[in-house]
Amino acid sequence: MAKRTKSNEKRIALLNATLHLVNNNGFHDAPMSKIAKMAGVSPATIYIYFENKQDLINKLYLETKASFSDDAFKDYTEDLSVQKGFELIWRNIANFKINQVEEAAFLSQCDNINTMIDEASRQEGLKNLQPLLDLWERGQKEGIIKNISPYLLYAYTIYPLAFLMTMQKRSDFELTEDKLTEAYNSAWNSIKI
């Protein structure tokens, strides 16, 4: 019997279908049969690419997190001042959340629902934030940023973007350039000394 070959297009279709279904129906209401149907493949095809649903979700998370990281640290160099570096990263993250709405929503779900991804994937995904963590640490050593936990730094600066995106999606708030600047200034002011 000939071995079945993998098609990158099918794999991408499966990842995209999973992203859409999880975002719109939730993790538990995104069965493999629906994922396969939306991707235009047979349910058995999923198992050529992924061991099971958890493997599929973990891989989607890690690939989405890597894409987020690529966008977040675009044009960032360690020779930037702490404030300039933070502003660049913050605005890059905001642009990702504005322009990659589906991906940002999925990552937000992964951050908020403990059972969606496994701990190994969560820890691997955190590595993507290392340049930001290093920048904050440098800022703390230089006496520019408050000496508080990186979780608090993230909660006060990056996490509010998820809330603003939700409000924009509901049409309760429009994230104009002026509002984005206000949000950045609030984020910076919340962590600077």
Percent strand? under 5%
Radius of gyration equals 19 Å
CATH fold category name of the largest domain = Tetracycline Repressor, domain 2
In the CATH hierarchy, what is the superfamily of the largest domain?
Tetracycline Repressor, domain 2
Low-pLDDT regions: none
Tally of discrete structural domains: 2
Layout of SSEs?
Elements: H1 8-25, H2 32-39, H3 43-49, H4 53-72, H5 82-99, H6 101-112, H7 119-126, H8 130-141, H9 150-157, H10 159-169, H11 177-191
Please, could you describe this protein's structure?
This protein starts with 7 loop residues before the first helix and ends with a helix. By secondary structure, it is mainly alpha-helical. It has 2 domains: 1-50, Homeodomain-like (Arc Repressor Mutant, subunit A, Orthogonal Bundle); 62-191, Tetracycline Repressor, domain 2 (Orthogonal Bundle), CATH 1.10.357.10. It has helices at residues 8-25, 32-39, 43-49, 53-72, 82-99, 101-112, 119-126, 130-141, 150-157, 159-169, 177-191. α2 crosses α3 and α5 runs antiparallel to α8 (130-141). The model has no long low-confidence stretch (mean pLDDT 92). The protein contains 11 helices and no strands.
